[in-house]
Amino acid sequence: MIDTDESVREALLILDLVRGATITEIRAQYLEKTSREKFQYGVLLDEHLQKEFDKYHRAYVTLAKHLSEGNQASDLQYYPPDQVFQFHFNQGVHYFIHQNYIKAGEKFQEAYKIDKTSIPVLLYLGYLLLKRKNAYAAEKYFKEVVQLAQDNDEAWFYLGESYREAGELRKALTMFGTAKTLNPGRHEAAFKIKDITDKLEEKAKKTKKSSLIQRFFKKLSN
After folding, report:
1. Are residues 97 and 78 in contact, defined by beta-carbon separation less than 8 angstroms?
2. Across residues 187-215, what is the average pLDDT?
3. What is the residue-wise DSSP string for the chain?
4. What is the 3-state secondary structure (H, E, C) of 44-105?
5. Do 106 and 143 fall within a single domain?
6. Residue 127: inside a domain
7. Looking at the structure, do residues 167 and 97 belong to the same domain, yes or no?
């Protein structure tokens, strides 16, 4: 059981707990709140969702630390696999939010070892590789998501980003188009489509112009 100083009292309120909550109750509330769909769909880039997630995570860390000092916290190795997975995933998200991408990658890899079909984990691993300018490695994870969930517009969008970074603009255009079809409200996909279309058209004009010049000089030489 725990006493309440100001930080602990605030953490209890955030997790909808009362004084005397046990580690089991704290853990259950924390996992319930952080496992909600809005935090699990894909890469957490929305600032408001980031703040909300981090609020729950910090509250849990505060309470777990308090209980650990009282020798009442349990070791992670005794948790069920699904909870161990969620803890690693949550830590990854926490580090991601705070832009510690190396630590985030380590935690997502730990989660990946437990569940290699987790769509959020695959998306984060791919996204982190894109941040590190490793488009070819990132492509692998996004393709895995597409195979698991063909209606996941986020996977199609980031697969498009992988191809764009690799210079494969026509493939990227197809991926962004699929993302836009699946989610018409995904405005960044529309921006990418326009940008790539403009580049391809400009490239086509230059190619045509170059071809005309070559033919002109060829006629002069004959």
Report:
1. no
2. 80
3. -----HHHHHHHHHTT--TT--HHHHHHHHHHHHTSHHHHSS----HHHHHHHHHHHHHHHHHHHHHHHTT-PPPGGGS-HHHHHHHHHHHHHHHHHTT-HHHHHHHHHHHHHH-TT-HHHHHHHHHHHHHTT-HHHHHHHHHHHHHH-TT-HHHHHHHHHHHHHTT-HHHHHHHHHHHHHH-TT-HHHHHHHHHHHHHHHHHHHHHHHHHHHHHHHHHHH-
4. CCCHHHHHHHHHHHHHHHHHHHHHHHCCCCCCHHHCCHHHHHHHHHHHHHHHHHCCCHHHHH
5. no
6. no
7. no
For 163-180, b/e burial (b = at least 16 CB within 10 A) is bbbeebbebbbbbbbbbb
- What is the distance between the terminal CA atoms of the chain, rounded to a whole angstrom? 96
Would you state the pLDDT for residue 73?
Answer: 46
CA atoms within 13 A on the CB side of 165: 19
pTM of the model: 0.84
Backbone angles phi, psi at 49, to 5 degrees: -65, -35
Would you say 169 and 196 are in contact if contact means Cβ atoms under 8 Å apart?
yes
**To which residue do tokens 């002069």 refer?**
220
For the segment 66-82, what is each residue's pLDDT rounded down to a tens digit? 887 654 445 667 788 99
> Is position 128 within any domain?
no
Based on the fold, state whether residues 61 and 168 are members of the same structural domain.
Answer: no
Count of alpha carbons within 13 Å of 79, Cβ hemisphere only? 18
Nearest to 93, CA basis, from 53, 52, 46: 53
